[in-house]
Write a structure and sequence with these properties.
single chain, 448 residues, alpha/beta, Aspartate Aminotransferase, domain 1, 3 domains, 4-stranded antiparallel sheet, globular
Amino acid sequence: MSLLKSIPKVDKFINNKKFNGFSKSLITKLSKELIVNLREDILNNKIDAINEEELIQNVINKYNLLISPSLQSVINATGIIVHTNLGRSLINEESFNKAMKVATSYNNLEYDLEKGKRGERYSHIVKTLQALTGCEDAIVVNNNASAVFLVLNTFCKNKEAVVSRGELVEIGGSFRVPDVMSQSGAILKEIGTTNKTHPKDYRNAVNENTSMLMKVHKSNYTIEGFTSEVPYEEVVEIAKEKNVIDYYDMGSGHMIDLPFNLDQAEPSILKIMQYNPSLLSFSGDKLLGSVQAGVIIGKKELIEEIKQNQLLRMLRVDKITLALLEDNLTSYLENRLDDIPTLKMLNTSVIELEKRARSLKEAINDICECEVIHTQTLIGGGTTPNKKIPTVALSISYKNYKANKIEQMFRKENLITRIENEKVLIDFRSIKENEIYKIEAIITKVFK
């Protein structure tokens, strides 16, 4: 009981001079919680003494932890450029500064400056997408999953959407195409088999309740061996023949040809647009190299129907997203591809990557054991599944430390690496050039 009597009074405790400069309301809240827990610990015989200085420090530590931002910048040394867990595509700093000016002032988000009356928020990106892709119209929602749901809900509610069994995918976060179709109100009509689908399967599936022939990008797997699938250009032709909508959920979607012959596995948006499709949707923050968004392009009358769907208001994007996306698309229009960090990293030569790796090796040779190696990596983000690209990395060893321990030490300093063949790798494919000196500083701090 004497220990209970020695519990500090809240009003006195919070006035300690060590709390000067802190938010009094938050300090009071944390102090009350601490004292309640302290009382319970005493009653449960978990402590036998009270140190007020320790209690004060405990409150300060919790305060600092609470106000520290959870979302932090890291250095991506995994080699995976479009790393979903690390925020996918990077935003160009100049683009971000332009968007910041828009976001920190009033703007013409839904105001027509020429006509002096209400405008449409999607108009800011339509003209650019029309110039780039030749589409009739476009709309943007908050991600490609939303785009898929919105398209299906608009055109296939209580109607059939025909999809190959080999494309009924599940991607990250348990996003399953059959479940999305069910939630949207669409009726799934499966055709073909897991490994083989033919043009006749599409033709034979169409009936009076069919609204759409849908093709889905296999974002995180490939089917090898005895296989066949129907190219999208044939799906478009069959849809026209049967007077139904064709729709390609491209998943990632890229605007221009990719290096390393990756277009053989994944054609570009511009290539697909040559087939005059009804509707395409793709992500903004994958190979397009922009902000998180789901872009829908296609026939004007179909986009107009989507705009009438009440769900659009729940899925629409804000001014910052539109500003960033517009600037990104303008970079494509003006062929300023180095302004798009994802493309710049993807197109950096192996020779340049090796030069950067050797530069870091020279700087840290006396700190740890390191070796420049040529290896391979994935682009990531569900793009070009199972297609690896060449890269250069620095393998790191230190004393008798195991790779897991070194990786953890680096991670505590926000340097995210990968382990390959029981060695920690710092992969230069996903490292910005101005981050190399930061990596040197982290290695020096960790090992010295």
